[in-house]
Amino acid sequence: MDRLFLLKNNLTEITGNRFIIDMMYATPDNIVMHPVYWEVGFGDRAFIHVDAAVRLQELSGELAKLNLKLRIRDAYRPPVAHQRILQLINVDGLFASRPENSLHCYGTALDCCLTDEKGRNLKFPTEVDGYEKKYAKQIAKGDTEAFYKHLEKARQDFWDTRYAEEINNRELLKKIMTSVGFETISSEWWHFQLPGGKEDYPMIEWK
Ligand SMILES: [Zn+2]
After folding, report:
1. Do residues 147 and 133 lie in contact, with contact meaning Cβ atoms separated by under 8 Å?
2. Cβ burial, residue 7 (10 Å; 0-12/13-18/19+)
3. Most exposed of 22, 25, 88, 170 (fewest Cβ within 10 Å)?
């Protein structure tokens, strides 16, 4: 990544032994089944606004104390990659309809889950992004019904007692992330963002 680009846009790479970088759009294991970040030349590294990086750094010690790690599945997303996802996706409404509507394109959002010391994911109500191969295949055919149903489990207000362990882990993740100042959104347990949003931060074009 071009150092000047990072400096000019207040972006920095997420590094450190408490963070597992595992960008889902750098692999075909995502809702559009394409390694989009490689297709646009971005690669598989995780970058984030320095204001978010400070918060993640604060989190490192706490994660160590709890013998946990944070698996980063998405962070800064170049608008060109967002456009590519929109191009590939077959249905409306599944994804922010413009890069301007996704805080990932501003470098102020990240998608993540918790793992143990060995990098094994804790259980959560869904995978990050609600992704499962069967849903990606259905969506490719224009069939979103089962996926939307599945996404009800992704909500912060999903309290089905049959998923007690998963919900506990969701609540733990929320507690950890909000303790250093990240905000949650109601529809996706894995998504965290800086307060301030589009008023305080510009969208970051790449290339
Ligand atoms: Zn997100």
Report:
1. no
2. exposed
3. 88
Domain of 31: which CATH number? 3.30.1380.10
Contact 60, 54 (CB under 8 A): no
Instruction: Please tell me the distance between residue 163's alpha carbon and the centre of ligand 1 in angstroms.
Output: 22
**124 belongs to a structural domain:** yes
Is 207 a member of any domain?
A: no
Whether residue 16 is contained in a domain is answered as: yes
Q: Ligand 1 mean position to 191 CA, how many Å?
A: 4
Structure confidence by residue, pLDDT tens digits, 109-146: 999 999 999 999 999 999 999 999 999 999 999 999 99
Q: How far is the CA of 76 from the centre of ligand 1 (A)?
A: 10
Query: Which residues have CB less than 5 Å away from ligand 1 (the ion)?
Result: 109, 111, 191
Does residue 158 fall inside a structural domain? yes
Kindly indicate the confidence band of residue 94, based on its pLDDT and cuts at 50, 70 and 90. confident
Domain residues for 17? 3-200
Total domains present in the chain: 1
* pTM, 2 dp: 0.96
74 alpha carbon to ligand 1 midpoint, in Å? 7
Average pLDDT over residues 31-35: 96
- Three-state DSSP class for residue 188: strand
C-alpha 23 – ligand 1 centre gap (Å): 12
Rg (alpha carbons) of the chain, rounded to whole number: 16
Q: Tokens 């089944």 map to which residue? A: 33
